[in-house]
Design goal:
This protein has 428 residues and is α/β, with parallel strands linked by helices. The chain contains 14 helices and 18 strands.
């Protein structure tokens, strides 16, 4: 079991960045996998081995698809090997081409899935309060080459689906949602997964429900579901007939067995996330320069992401400085989506001036920090993380002076910064 070091709650000498032992002997990670009932998973694995049906639309894949479709209230769920392949297949199945409008504030796979199909991702700025694509900025980006919009539901909070639907309908555009963060969440009482032409789910190890690796396309469009089923299995119809272009996007039986086991524990995972979120909320609300993104009380949420923004002017220290203080304590807080898709290759070469149209995105990406949560953390752990944040903020000038004389001579995941005279902080 992880142990939390017994150290004072105040004073720089209690921070590992200043020489104290780390708060946590074992590292706290953002997105450490949730594990359901081990015995139930092993029973399923033994059954898979007994059946000798390991892949190709087996019993457990069909059961997993059925359970997801029922949970979301959609007609079709098509399980995939991962969410990136699911995005690639659904964009091709919908006939997207030319240009597709997408936020830069997302995991790079969202943009890559388009670029891989030789579709140009056109990056749209975000609403700084929600971090979602800003509908008021989309129409200015539409050209004769635009064929679609990809909205991203971040942090388990759904996009402005109503506005995006209206824009897509007005301009005859396809509308897909990347719902990797939002399984089990609602928008105005309607379950995520039921919006747009289709939505894409992720069951990666870091997600609320995981299948080790996996994804799915969910839709109530019967023709679209039929096409993506063909495309994820090389276009085969029956034993020998290929009726459509395709690739290998199939989910295997072992992944589906883990997905079902994870689904069965979903309420337990959400409850632990909720408990951790309430502790974070109680401790962080009101701290100078810290804004916690809160979950709307009127909606169903999965509470899977604890997201703060660090305003350097009010906090007295930067997001990166706070991150390094936490890393020294073995708390691997993350700068999610930094520095933005538009500043990653190949997009920074293709669109070197994209940042000029992405002012809100740039600003938010400099302030976001995602903190650990999940079934691997206890409320005691969360309180200890908050103790570190509170201490760093209470002595912000001294923390910044100390870090200003350090260099990051190793990657953040490898440990804290080491002192060296007459140097300045390099922000990776």
């Amino acid at each position: 079991m992880r142990t939390v070091a017994s150290v004072p709650a105040i004073g720089l000498d209690c921070l590992a960045a200043f020489g104290a032992p780390p708060r946590f002997a074992q590292t706290l990670h953002v997105g450490r996998p949730n594990i359901g009932e081990r015995a139930a998973f092993l029973r399923r694995m033994n059954d898979i081995l007994d059946r000798r049906w390991l892949t190709n639309n087996g019993y457990y894949v069909r059961e997993f698809e059925s359970r997801i479709a029922e949970l979301l209230g959609v007609d079709h769920c098509v399980a995939m090997s991962n969410a990136t392949v699911a995005l690639e297949i659904v964009t091709r199945a919908l006939g997207m081409a030319g240009e597709v409008i997408v936020p830069s504030m997302t995991f790079v796979a969202t943009a890559h899935a388009l670029q891989w199909q030789r579709i140009t991702p056109v990056f749209c700025d975000i609403d700084p309060l929600t971090h979602h694509i800003d509908p008021t900025r989309i129409e200015a980006l539409i050209t004769p080459r635009t064929t679609g919009i990809v909205g991203v539901h971040l942090w388990g909070r759904a996009c402005d689906t109503k506005s995006l639907h209206a824009i897509a309908e007005k301009h005859d555009l396809r509308l897909v949602f990347d719902a990797a963060h939002a399984l089990g969440c609602t928008r105005q009482g309607r379950m995520v997964g039921t919006f747009g032409d289709a939505e894409v789910l992720s069951f990666h190890a870091t997600k609320l429900v995981n299948s080790f690796e996996g994804g799915a396309i969910v839709t109530s469009d019967e023709d679209l579901a039929a096409r993506v089923r063909l495309m994820k299995n090389f276009g085969f119809v029956g034993m020998d007939s290929v009726e459509h272009e395709g690739t290998n996007g199939k989910m295997c039986e072992a992944s589906a067995a883990m997905g079902i086991t994870s689904l069965e524990a979903m309420e337990e995972f959400v409850e632990r996330n909720r408990s951790n979120y309430e502790v974070y909320r109680k401790r962080l609300i009101g701290l100078p320069g810290i804004r916690l993104l809160e979950y709307p009380q009127a909606e169903h949420n999965n509470f899977q992401y604890i997201v703060i923004e660090v305003d350097r002017n009010w906090a007295g220290l930067s997001r990166d400085s706070l991150m390094w203080v936490l890393h020294a304590e073995n708390v691997r807080a993350r700068r999610y989506f930094y520095p933005g898709c538009h500043r990653m290759e190949p997009y920074r070469s293709y669109f070197p001036h994209a940042h000029l149209l992405l002012g809100q995105t740039e600003s938010v990406l400099e302030e976001i920090l995602v903190l650990p949560t999940g079934s691997a953390l206890t409320p005691q752990d969360v309180n200890a993380v908050c103790d570190v944040i509170e201490t760093a903020l209470s002595m912000a000038p001294a923390v910044e002076r100390h870090l200003a004389h350090c260099v990051r001579d190793s990657a953040p995941s490898e440990g804290p910064m080491k002192p060296q005279a007459n140097t300045s902080i390099h922000h990776a």
